[in-house]
Amino acid sequence: MGNSDFAPVFNLNLTVLSGEYAIYKLPPGSSWPAIPPGSFTSITETHNEVSVVAVSGLGLGAQDVETGWSLIEVSGPLDFGLTGVLHSLLEPLANAKIAVFVTSTYGTDYLLIKATKMEEAVIALRDHGHKVNNAYL
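Below the sequence we write its predicted structure tokens.
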């Protein structure tokens, strides 16, 4: 652990998606909210909460809302046997002191990064060998 010499065996293709996103915390047992179709949404339910990642400004009756996030999509689909994918993304961001909220789907991974840190994140990811499309640079 702590080995900063890790380099991805593969260079990932990443895309910065448009829009501002928020992370909503709803009370446990909440009904899943209606989200505008066609936008990125991730809903996770546990015994402690319902977390929703979606476009900003929805309200949703949330207990807490964390706004100001931008979204990076890892081009997929990713094989379930791949190892080190998230490490190859998170290590350069951690080294640059950039906080990340990660969510995944069946086919790929998504990184939420504060919009104010996106330029720094793109630089860190590119310096680590990843290709970033639709970036601010």
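The mean pLDDT is 86.
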